[in-house]
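Researcher: Please predict.
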Amino acid sequence: MAVAKMKLVSVIGHMESLDTVVKICGSSGVFQPDDAMTFFSDSSGFSAIKEENPYADPLTRLESAMTRAGGKPRLTDMPAALSEQEWRDYVARFTDRVSELAKKRSELASRAESLNKDIEQFEHLRGLDIDLESILNCETIKVRFGRLPKESFEKLKSYNDNPYVLFFPGTSDQEYYWGVYFSPLDFSADVDRIFSSLYFERMRIPYANGKPEEVIAHLKEEQSETQKALGAVREELSSYWTGEQAVCQQVYTLLHQESYFFDVRRFAARYKDKFILAGWIPKQEEKALSSALDAVEGIEYSFERPDEDAHHTPPVKLRNFSLFRPFEFFVDMYGLPRYTEVDPTPFVAITYTILFGIMFADLGQ
């Protein structure tokens, strides 16, 4: 029930051993790298290892493709055993196929949405016994489809002296009449102004052929075909993900792991043909990491207590009994204690439980 004791690990070796050391430290699951350059008061002659991560872009593309395929990226215990060329070929093949199917799905979904809007618009024009193609192609009159408030429709009677102020309703609801009005080109501006003053809301409909009922029937038929095609593409994408899921998760784990290892490299410092890598581990992990590093030739390493370096603060890791462990969330949310301070988790666990019980007037609850 305290802050875990940490040890500072320093590894020095030839550059050809850096990748091996990074993988050992990274695979331990407990190594927290620190900037090696900051451990030297005189850093002249040292240089940071700044290299572009070759795994970052493939990892991002693969993760995005997995999400679009309906999957959720997860790390597995067994990453894929693939060469660089093999995993690059797999990522390219998988992402290309998913992109192709996702593009079809998006296009069909957009078309289905557009058809729904068109059908909704033409539904308002039911009852208008007019051929839409002839009306829309007419060059001598202006045509305006839309809706007019019912109160405004009654006011049209006051414009009886103007033969061009006529509104032909199709359908209606509690507030509006939906329909059309026509006006000669020479009088269209005046007629538009009158209907605008009556709060007419114009509706722009797509080009159509036939009466509204015929157009609606054609659109619904196309909508049905589009929905079938959309369902087929979704099923194909789902089946593709089902077949590739196991391998894809393994490749994702491999890239995630290699990307992490490569990012750890950036914390190392280079001096001529040698490297220096520093980081923190829990004290109880010293023996396991030491045994793994002993297998690497040409390196030297050391473990130091945090109080031997006053210029660096070790990371904080809480250690509590399983009963108190869930309450570490609240401590982390409001701020972890410093390495030298007391862990307040047990206190939070007890007081939170008591106050929760008092709040509900039932301590047993």
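Model: The chain has a mean pLDDT of 86.
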